[in-house]
Amino acid sequence: MSNTQPEQPVLRAEALRKHFPVRGIGTSGVVHAVDDVDLDLHAGRVVALVGESGSGKSTIARLLAQLMPLTAGRIVLDGEDATVHNRRAFRRYVGRVQMIFQDPFGSINPIHPVRYTLTRALRIHRGRLRGRELEAALDELLERVQLTPTARYVDKYPHELSGGQRQRVAIARALAANPDVLLADEPISMLDVSIRLGILNLLKDLRDRLKIAILYITHDIASARYFADRTMVMYAGRIVETGDSESVTQDPKHPYTQLLVRSAPDPDDLEARAHGARGEAPSLVNPPSGCRFNPRCPFATELCRTEVPPLLEVGEGRQAACWGYSERPDRPKVTDVLEVLGERPGLDTVAGAPYSTNGGTEAST
């Protein structure tokens, strides 16, 4: 980040939109995967993108990594349009913006040792290193991700490593480019619960030491509070709430965010499992008009069903896409969503997500 423009984001997404065409016999239309999303990533800061499966989070990561073309919108890197149009521009871009994929078992080639994986990344981004210079660079990468002593890991194959160690190798491969931005697409969801915190602490250390901007995509809003500076909540392709992580998780404003936060099991309120939103997540081929949460929202009015709410100010640095916080006379009256829904014994869903065997929900795992 420039010293003369300390507030300028390293990477900015402006009105991102991604629609996938639906093709088949007797079918037509598009899947509205992402609609009009704005996002800023600053050096040394973490933004968490939280939501249910199918809400569009991973699509945003792939758009920002430019692994798929935009339907509309713009990607800006250090204040300049960064949309790539050829292989050379793409290589320059990935030297600045790297992605960490969800599955470390699938993102690393199983037939090559760690040495090959990291050497290839180093030579792509730093030139054809050889001899001692290459060995020093390999040691540096493994030390950065806390795989020490490095000699124990550099010649191992992926099947000889644990899930957490594989993810550290994947992070080391991304760091070979000395990137300014890391796009972490659910980097801990495939890992054992006992080692997830170690990966988050590693990413925090990289953020603090290297001043890398990080986009952290997750189902787990609790980890967003622990790890991220800001949290953005996504529902059915749109951002519904954004703000500092502490405020969003402790005092959620949007009805969907309220349900998402409270979907985490509370040992002091076991009856909370009986609370939840009615209905199912909407079809993104034919999304509801107006607010996309309106079919499941207990506060929805005709306004919510006909007009798309903008992100409205609901506090310092906080916004929610809910007409209940507007000044319009026909606005809905928004209160605590659980008080309105009340207790519904026998219901096995919270925020539309089925309970998992560990007592949580899909939205909190």
Describe the structure.
With 365 residues, the chain is of the alpha/beta class. It folds into two domains: 11-233, P-loop containing nucleotide triphosphate hydrolases (Rossmann fold); 252-364, no CATH class. 29% of the residues lie in helices and 21% in strands. The protein contains eleven helices and 14 strands. The protein has helices at residues 57-64, 87-94, 114-126, 131-144, 163-175, 193-210, 221-227, 245-250, 255-262, 302-306, 337-341; strands at 11-21, 30-41, 46-50, 72-77, 80-81, 97-100, 181-185, 213-218, 230-235, 238-244, 312-315, 318-320, 349-350, 353-354. The strands form three sheets. An eight-stranded mixed β-sheet has the order 6-7-8-3-9-10-12-11, sandwiched between helices. It has a four-stranded antiparallel β-sheet with strand order 2-1-4-5, with helices on one face. A two-stranded antiparallel sheet has the order 13-14. Helix 3 (114-126) crosses helix 4 (131-144) and helix 3 (114-126) runs parallel beside helix 5 (163-175). Belongs to the ABC transporter superfamily. It holds the Pfam family oligo_HPY. This is ABC transporter ATP-binding protein. Residues 11-261 form the ABC transporter domain. Keywords: ATP-binding, Nucleotide-binding, Transport.
